[in-house]
Design goal:
The complex is a heterodimer.
Chain A lengths: L9 H13 L5 H11 L6 H13 L3 E6 L10 E6 L1 H18 L3 H4 L1
Antiparallel strand pairs in A: 1-2
Helix pairs in contact in A: 1-2
Chain B lengths: L13 H10 L4 H18 L3 H24 L1 H11 L7 H18 L1 H30 L10 E8 L4 E4 L3 H10 L3 E15 L5 E8 L3 H5 L5 E2 L14 E4 L1 H8 L9 E4 L2 E8 L13 E4 L15 E6 L5 H18 L4 H9 L3 E6 H6 L2 H33 L1 H9 L4 H37 L14 H26 L4 H6 L6 H39 L10 E7 L8 H16 L4 E7 L9 E7 L12 E6 L4 H5 L3 E4 L13 E5 H7 L9 E4 L8 E7 L14 E4 L13 E8 L6 H11 L6 E5 H8 L1 H35 L1 H9 L4 H30 L15 H27 L3 H6 L2
Parallel strand pairs in B: 4-9, 6-8, 15-20, 17-19
Antiparallel strand pairs in B: 1-2, 1-10, 1-11, 3-4, 3-7, 3-10, 5-8, 6-9, 7-8, 12-21, 12-22, 13-21, 14-15, 14-18, 16-19, 17-20, 18-19
Helix pairs in contact in B: 1-3, 2-3, 5-15, 6-13, 6-15, 6-16, 13-16, 13-18, 13-24, 15-16, 18-24, 18-26, 18-27, 19-22, 24-26, 24-27, 26-27
The chains are: A mainly alpha, B alpha+beta.
């Protein structure tokens, strides 16, 4: 369960990538939809918000609060953004994966 | 109306949202999660409300679970704490977390135990929450008015003439209003039904005529517009109406511009002057229109008690004081009305009296008793469930005695051990609580479906915050109840002794067995009390089902049609309309017979009044005999299959050529002319000196119009035209259509009505069978709920007995093995175990019988033709319980007889 600073798990990578994919429209439900559509990963809101909070604690993610609408019952909206540190961690993870998969193209297809 | 456009339905389940709000932080980030879920709920709700609610619940619970885990998990704090330098993981929070994790692990290791214990608790908690939800809205907070405990109803009674309770008349109201000094305000009102026409389909709506001061007495003010003003209550004043919230939103799309506009009621135009707040309906649950009563006490009959009276007590005045003052007015009434000898006779012979009680009592009424009975019942079930779980825990404690002893000997603090076992109980209680809440939600919806329709605030019943609190309390309480005893027992100092002991020889083992047996005896006793209770109700229900109501309720469709006097001014127009409609209905395919009557048995109660009988003259100081009366058309008796005794039923000539004929019911004929032929006898209305004599042309069987438990009515049926000169005619009739399938002719009937009068609404569409079933709804509601509770208790009791005996067998395996090895018959071993189970069951039955003798009298009012100590119910249920006990003993007994002596001896 322990995670060293700077490293991110598979699911956290997916969340960060989904936030990047959504650009300036990364809100909670959209991230969930993105994960379901592109990664075929159904995820409970509990797990998603828990990961988002964790990524913020690690400094990989930040959010901005936007205004409330009536269909949200007067509650505000949170728009997520990947921080430079988050980008760095993603690149590192991506690079590690690339190094490890190099030469295995035949096996992995 | 488009359902999904209603802003109320867009709200996610309030309970789930409240739960979510309580676990999320209150900052913008936390609230944004609520917003996300609300938004998505709105989207999902459009494609299906139930699925969306389920989705919301699932997500809310998942978030709550993750939040709790993130908050207390030391692992998470290590990563999170690394950046901000805090260590929250130490201290009591961490210890509790460790205990909980330990508890989770041990519970997971024994899934059988955990499942049974959780389901057992869920049954108890679920039943309790469901019933409490109903009790909470109905009993504890039934009235939506401010300071509602000061609102009283004023009723009169004439026990000397057999009239239990009725309302007031305008002259008596005027006297109370004038002379009293105990009420802040006093008012009268009377239910009435109106045809609402114009914009949209015609509709039949329940309304009320209200006197001045009604809204003041209730302390209700319109949310839009105003209360009535004095000139609107004058006979020639402008016609005004106040509208209820439900009607306003449903029919008028909550348009604030409605105030000031006019609507059409019974063909006349009324200006809408105000809209009442939500939830306000009076005097009936479904009242949604209020019109000034325009009473004229000087002209009305003092003996015409057709009004309901309410009043608000002055602060500091008690109900008894108010009652005493009104009683002193009643005492003066014979003097006051000395010029009306018949009224004086009514006061004196009837022992006329007044009674004042709280409005809450009137509204909640008899239902109160059923609900308290149910609440007590489910309390029993919860106790049984707790006893069961306690038992399971005790059994488990046996198995872990060595483990505990070893840990204690190695230096574990006794409180550490106690705390660990307690945390297991709390986890289990929480699990049971969540499952129970789900069961409660299912239970509330089914209770609402079977509840009597006179239950106040039926549509508002739901699982709300206070019910959630109640469940939480019960859950915690039961966790303590069943967790504490074994936890304390386990850390007793004698424990070290267990280290060197094995088997069942220790004295503490004996204590525990006694404790377990006592628990099962108690469970059995409580189960028996519930079984006897439900047995008595089932028997009453059975007796009532076998009562002949005097008509055949199967395959009859009923609905009510009312013709406004503005559009049908003449009585013969009314009669012609009904005649025409009946002929059309009779021509429809599948229709066997059709008729209509003013009063329907068990539905509209009809009216009673005095009649003069030609050959039984009434003296000046005597009251004329009172009979119920109703208009009836040709075909009515045939469609209801009310048997004809002698003479004939109505046909065309009775309202066309040969006016002034009557049909009477058999009980009336038997009372008035026990040895004579009733045909040809004559009667007339006593209240109206111009009413003509009418001749009896037929006698039909009596009908139990006021409830199956009451006697058949002494009833007079008269044709649609002719009996009285005034407006007392057949404007409102309930149609009775007998068809092969009672609901199938409905569309064709609607079309036939629309062809005759497109603006005429059709109301109270129901099958006669439903009306009959509803007349005993309270009994069947209590019976079904109590039977479910009793069945649950029986199952739980059986599980308890089975558990104890299984355990005994497993503990005595060695001993049984020795017996078998020494030549004991397997049959005798089996008998020994069954006997032990039987002893427990019999002890439970004995205590249960004693308890039932004391408790069944609370059911008295619901029973019919069944004594609270009915021997059949007592014996049958005891026998049932004994059988179940034997069955529960048989399985462990059989296992005992199959013990392999060699294996059991090698176990040592």
């Amino acid at each position: 369960m322990t995670q060293r600073h700077g490293f991110i798990g598979e699911f956290e990578q997916m969340v960060l990538l989904a936030v990047l994919q959504l650009g300036t429209a990364a809100y909670g439900p959209d991230i969930s939809d993105e994960l379901e559509q592109k990664a075929n990963r159904r995820v409970s809101r509990g797990a998603l918000y828990s990961s988002l909070d964790r990524l913020k604690h690690k400094g990989f993610l930040r959010w901005e609060i936007e205004g409330a609408t009536s269909e949200r019952g007067g509650h505000p909206k949170r728009r997520f953004e990947v921080t430079p540190a988050g980008l760095k961690a993603l690149r590192a993870a991506h690079q590690a994966l690339a190094n490890l998969t190099a030469g295995l193209e035949e096996v992995l297809g | 109306m488009n359902h999904s456009s209603n802003p109320r339905t867009r709200r996610p389940p309030p309970l789930a949202e409240a739960l979510l709000g309580s676990v999320l932080p209150g900052d913008a980030a936390g609230r944004s999660v609520l917003g996300d879920l609300r938004e998505e709920y709105g989207r999902r709700e459009r494609s299906g409300g139930a699925v969306a609610r389920l989705w919301y619940w699932r997500e809310a619970l998942a978030i709550a679970a993750h939040r709790t885990k993130d908050r207390v998990s030391p692992a998470e704090h290590r990563t999170a704490g690394a950046s901000n330098g805090q260590k929250k993981g130490d201290g009591p929070m961490r210890r509790i977390w460790a205990d909980l994790r330990f508890g989770t692990r041990t519970l997971r290791r024994t899934p059988g135990f955990t499942t049974i214990a959780a389901i057992t608790l869920a049954l108890g908690i679920g039943a309790n929450t469901a019933i409490f939800s109903v009790v909470d809205s109905v009993l504890l907070d039934p009235l939506p008015f401010p300071a509602a405990d000061r609102i009283v109803g004023i009723w009169h009674a004439a026990p000397g003439l057999g009239y239990p309770e009725f309302g007031t008349s305008t002259p008596i109201h005027a006297q109370y209003l004038e002379d009293n000094d105990v009420f802040e305000s006093i008012a009268i009102c009377r239910s009435a039904r109106f045809n609402l026409t114009g914009d949209g389909d015609p509709e039949r709506i329940t309304g009320a005529f209200v006197s001045r001061g009604t809204l003041e007495t209730l302390q209700v003010s319109p949310i839009l517009g105003r209360n009535f003003v004095t000139e609107e209550d004058l006979p020639d004043g402008p016609q005004a109406v106040i509208i209820g919230h439900e009607l306003w939103t449903r029919r008028f799309a909550a348009d604030p511009g409605l105030v000031g506009r006019s609507i059409e009621l019974n063909g006349e135009s009324y200006a809408v002057v105000g809209i009442l707040p939500e939830r306000i309906a009076f005097p009936q649950n479904e009242t949604s229109i209020w019109v000034p009563a325009r009473i004229d006490p000087a002209r009305d009959q003092p003996g015409s008690f057709e009004w309901n009276s309410i009043a608000r007590l002055k602060p500091g005045v008690s109900i008894d004081q108010a009652q005493a003052q009104l009683a002193s007015f009643v005492d003066q009434m014979p003097e006051r009305y000395a010029d009306t000898p018949q009224l004086v006779a009514f006061f004196e012979q009837g022992q006329f009296r007044v009674s004042v009680h709280t409005l809450k009592e009137d509204v909640v009424g008899d239902v109160q008793r059923s609900l308290w009975i149910l609440l007590g019942t489910v309390g029993f079930v919860l106790l049984i469930a707790c006893a069961n779980v306690a038992n399971l825990f005790l059994v488990r404690a046996e198995g872990r005695r060595r483990e505990s002893a070893v840990r204690a000997a190695l230096g574990a603090d006794r409180w550490v051990l106690a705390r660990q076992y307690l945390s297991e109980s709390i986890l289990l209680a929480a699990l049971g609580g969540v499952l129970g809440l789900f069961l409660a939600w299912v239970g509330v919806s089914s209770l609402i479906r079977i509840a009597p329709s006179n239950l106040p605030r039926l549509d508002e019943i739901g699982i709300d915050g206070s019910v959630l609190g109640f469940t939480a309390c019960i859950t915690l309480l039961s966790a303590l109840l069943f967790g504490l005893a074994p936890a304390l027992k386990r850390v007793s100092p004698a424990m070290v002794g267990s280290l060197i002991q094995s088997g069942t020889r220790s004295s503490t083992g004996r204590d525990r067995r006694l404790a377990r047996n006592a628990l099962v005896v108690m469970q059995t006793a409580m189960a028996l009390v519930l079984l006897i209770g439900s047995g008595l109700l089932v028997r009453s229900f059975w007796q009532i089902r076998n009562i002949n109501p005097g008509f055949d309720a199967r395959d009859v469709l009923t609905f009510r049609i009312s013709l406004a006097s503005a559009e049908y001014p003449e009585p013969n127009q009314v009669a012609a309309f009904h005649q025409q409609l009946l002929e059309r209905i009779r021509g429809l395919p599948g229709v066997v017979a059709a008729g209509a009557a003013e009063a329907l048995p068990l539905g509209q109660s009809g009216s009673g009044t005095g009649f003069f009988v030609e050959d039984r003259p009434t003296a000046e100081t005597e009251l004329p005999p009172m009979f119920w009366f109703s208009a009836a058309t040709p075909g009515y008796f045939e469609s209801m299959r009310i048997p004809l005794r002698t003479g004939r039923t109505f046909d065309r000539r009775d309202h066309e050529s040969e006016l002034g004929n009557l049909i009477v019911s058999a009980p009336l004929a038997e009372r008035l002319w026990p040895d004579e032929d009733p045909l040809g006898k004559r009667l007339r209305f006593a209240s109206d000196s111009t009413s003509p004599w009418m001749t009896v042309v037929g006698v039909v069987e009596g009908v139990r119009g006021h409830g199956l438990r009451r006697d058949p009515l002494e009833m007079i049926y008269y044709p649609m035209v002719g009996p009285r000169a005034d407006d007392w005619d057949a404007r409102s009739l309930t149609y009775t259509v007998r068809a092969q399938n009672p609901l199938s002719p409905l569309p064709a009937v609607r079309a036939a009505i629309a062809e005759l009068d497109a603006s005429l609404p059709i109301a109270q569409v129901e099958s006669m069978a439903r009306i009959l079933a509803r007349s005993e709804a309270q009994l069947s509601f209590t019976m079904q709920a109590l039977t479910i509770a009793a069945a649950t208790a029986l199952i739980l009791g059986a599980i308890g007995l089975y558990g104890v005996l299984s355990y005994v067998v497993s503990q005595r395996t060695q001993e049984i093995g020795v017996r078998l090895a020494l030549g004991a018959e397997p049959g005798s071993v089996q008998k020994m175990v069954v006997l032990q189970g039987t002893r427990i069951a019999v002890a439970g039955i004995a205590i249960g019988l004693a308890g039932a003798v004391g408790l069944t009298r609370f059911l008295q009012g619901l029973l019919y033709d069944t004594e609270p100590l009915d021997p059949v119910a007592f014996v049958a249920t005891s026998a049932l319980l004994l059988c179940v006990g034997l069955l529960a003993s048989y399985v462990p007994a059989r296992r005992a007889s199959l013990v392999d002596p060699m294996k059991s001896l090698r176990m040592e």
